[in-house]
Design goal:
Shape: globular
Low-confidence stretches: none
Largest sheet: 8 strands, parallel, barrel
Mean pLDDT: 95
Structural class: alpha/beta
Distance between the termini: 41 Å
Strand content: 15-25%
Strand order of the largest sheet: 3-4-5-8-9-10-11-12
Helix content: 25-40%
């Protein structure tokens, strides 16, 4: 038996978990028809194979039909759910892990304009800013129906062989009764603590009576709502005791609230924010409770997780985002290869992605959510090949790593004196410094795998074509795209400003026709340096490609710094004035009128233009002519196209060498292409 505190078994009722590491309830939006079908199952089975003790599926799984899914939620009111839950449960159990599921009615945290377009329901007539729905106050018949739906959903989970359920009493329907932040009723369900707890306790009691005694009931709740007119630790400790008395076996403890992007970010800290901010509070609460306590809240590193268990702060530690980044984290701890754990860098693509991309993805694990096409483990190649990778940014690093994992001989050429590509620019922002982990982990992996890395090595097509490589992967990235308008030569490139090679002060106009975090980094950097900044975009919203959690942190900072935001304005032309200032003329698409700004400098962020000269010269010499077979690409299958029988090597390009996209797209390109080599 391991002596590592994280790997010690833990027993809840009749269930013994093989270790203390938990993937807590969350919704990756992998459902199909509201059901946990093959993609959903593969995602959780990968965690079981990776050694997790308990995987909790179905964050915010819906018990009632009128509670419209807001982010791909499982719909447990459907009879078909039992079949799919049983398949998932059995396969997770077969791989040594326990499995539970979260039940909820979303209440105000949903929309009246999705699903069946039914009115949303809450304890009172309220509106949650994050999901923007105006609710009706729950009537007695609503309350009776929803209570019955909870019971039926719990019984379906028992029938499916699950080990337990996790009741969501944090930011949804049940806890809206509990907190005066939402509850302004004047009947027997409003006012005093006893009245506010009346209905949630009725529901919990009904569920407990309807399921077997050894079936585990967990409750996910906050111990400090951290908002005006919300509940604090004192009353929430009483809430915990109340629900324990009615049959709750485990508390999944949190800090904060989730009714806005800003509050959600404080509860689930993102990149650039403090690690484990609520751990001390939860530890204090645990000492006062007589049931096991688990907690997840940016516990992304093994050292912090190990401390939490060893010091008795927690009984079970949620490492949900860390497991999204590397589902084999527990196995790597057991094998004493912690240095090989792919780190969570806190980019929040896993959370914001359900809204911006339609599903949760890890910024630098391309297999998460794609386990059916790109398994978390890489099979060895049947034939070893000699492969060159040109470029050491995220795409090139992942390409070299994947190829080396397959057993190929790999040489990586990087023209600069360091690896990382555009990440080296991004981390100039303190808010994004954790992205360095993407480079550091891959650099370490390349060393372990024996990849030859040649820095300060600019290579051209002739160097590569004559070197005897079987395949060449071009990951040369891109350069800032020029702004092609009259006077565009006066515009400073964002990279130059962020890197410090060019300085601009006074009144500065930042023009963002990209929509990512780059312009936000620029604005924050310049405003902190004392510039008076106006951030202008032709879009109808600022930073349209930035998820709500990440954006909220930026916007709070930029507002404090006095940055002005202007939407729906195109930068039409620029004139240089005799005093060294510039006049920027702004307008709207297809409109003749203009308005102007006199500024000391103009910086533009418009994405990148591919650097493709090496690729372009290699295409005619290659056997595949650069062709990528799309179906094979998506499934990581062999690339077998022959367009030039005389060609002696294959050539592929990936990442920004194709087009301006982002880190995840670059790494995904690399994983897909290189698994097919």
């Amino acid at each position: 038996m391991s002596t590592d505190p994280l790997l010690t078994p833990f027993t809840i009722k009749n269930l013994t978990l093989r270790n203390r590491i938990v993937s807590t309830s969350h919704e990756p939006s992998y459902s199909e028809d509201g059901l946990p079908k093959d993609r959903y199952r593969a995602y959780h089975v990968a965690k079981a194979k990776g050694g997790v003790g308990l995987t909790m599926i179905g964050g915010s799984s819906i018990v009632s039909r009128e509670s419209a899914p807001a982010f791909g939620n499982l719909q447990l009111w459907k009879d078909e759910t039992v079949h799919w839950l049983r398949l998932l449960t059995d396969e997770v159990h077969d791989n040594g892990a326990a499995v539970m599921i979260q039940l909820t009615h979303l209440g105000h945290r949903s929309s009246s304009y999705s699903g069946d377009w039914l009115p949303t329901i809450s304890v009172s007539a309220v509106r949650e800013r994050a999901h923007r729905s105006f609710t009706k106050e729950a009537e007695d018949w609503d309350m009776d129906r929803i209570k019955a739906d909870y019971v039926t959903a719990a019984q379906r989970c028992v029938e499916a062989g699950m080990d337990g359920i996790d009741l969501m009493i944090h930011g949804h329907y049940l806890d809206s009764f509990m907190t005066p932040f939402w509850n302004n009723r004047t009947d027997e369900f409003g006012g005093s603590h006893e009245n506010r707890m009346r209905y949630p306790l009725e529901v919990i009691k009904a569920i407990r009576a309807a399921v077997p005694e050894d079936f585990i009931i967990s409750a996910r709740m906050s111990f400090d709502e951290l908002r005006e007119n919300g509940l604090g630790p004192g009353e929430l400790l009483t809430v915990a005791q109340d629900i324990i008395d009615e049959g709750v076996d485990v508390i999944s403890a949190l800090g904060g609230a989730i009714d806005s992007d800003s509050r959600l970010t404080r509860m689930i800290p993102i990149m650039g924010m403090a690690s484990a901010p609520h751990l001390e509070l939860i530890g204090e609460m645990k000492q006062k409770l007589n049931v096991p306590v688990m907690h997840a809240g940016k516990i992304a590193d093994v050292a912090t997780a190990r401390y939490a268990i060893e010091a008795g702060v927690l009984d079970l530690v949620g490492m949900t985002r860390a497991l999204i980044a590397d589902p084999y984290l527990p196995t790597k701890i057991a094998n004493k290869t912690e240095d090989q754990i792919r780190p969570c860098v806190g980019a929040s693509m896993c959370i914001d992605g359900i809204y911006t991309a339609g599903a949760a993805f890890c910024i630098h694990n391309p297999s998460t959510g794609r386990e059916l096409e790109l398994p978390q483990t890489i099979d060895a190649a049947k034939a070893k090949r000699n492969v060159a990778v040109v470029g050491g940014g995220p795409a090139g690093l992942e390409a070299a790593r994947t190829l080396a994992e397959k057993g190929h001989t790999v040489t990586l050429f990087e023209a600069n004196d360091s690896l990382g590509g555009q990440i080296n620019i991004a981390i100039r922002s303190p808010r994004r410094r954790d992205l360095q982990g993407i480079t550091d982990w891959r650099t370490q992996e390349l060393k372990r795998l024996g990849v030859t890395v040649k820095l300060n090595s600019y290579v051209d097509a002739s160097d590569l074509s004559e070197a005897g490589f079987d395949a060449i992967v071009v990951a040369t990235g891109g350069m800032p795209k020029a702004l092609e308008i009259p006077g565009g030569n006066h515009v400073l490139e964002s990279w130059d400003v962020l890197s410090g090679s060019k300085r601009v002060t006074g009144d500065v106009l930042i023009y963002d026709d990209h929509g990512g975090t780059q312009a936000l980094d620029l604005a924050e950097n310049l405003a902190q340096s004392g510039a008076k900044v106006e951030l202008v975009t032709p879009e109808r919203n600022m930073s349209v490609d930035v998820g709500g959690m990440v954006a909220s942190a930026y916007f709070k900072s930029l507002a404090t710094l006095g940055v002005k935001f202007t939407i729906l304005r195109e930068l039409k032309r620029i004139e240089k004035n005799s005093d060294g200032t510039f006049t920027a003329y702004l307008g709207m698409e297809d409109e003749a009128w203009e308005e102007s700004r006199i500024v000391n400098g103009i910086v533009a962020e418009t994405g990148t233009t591919a650097i493709s000269d090496v690729y372009d010269e290699l295409v005619s010499l290659s056997s595949n002519g650069g062709e990528v077979e799309i179906e094979a690409l998506i499934h990581g299958g062999p690339q077998t196209s022959i367009r030039n029988p005389d060609g002696k090597f294959q050539v592929f390009r990936i990442g920004d060498a194709i087009s301006s996209r982002g880190i995840h797209s670059a790494i995904l390109d690399a994983a897909r292409v290189c698994r097919g080599i």
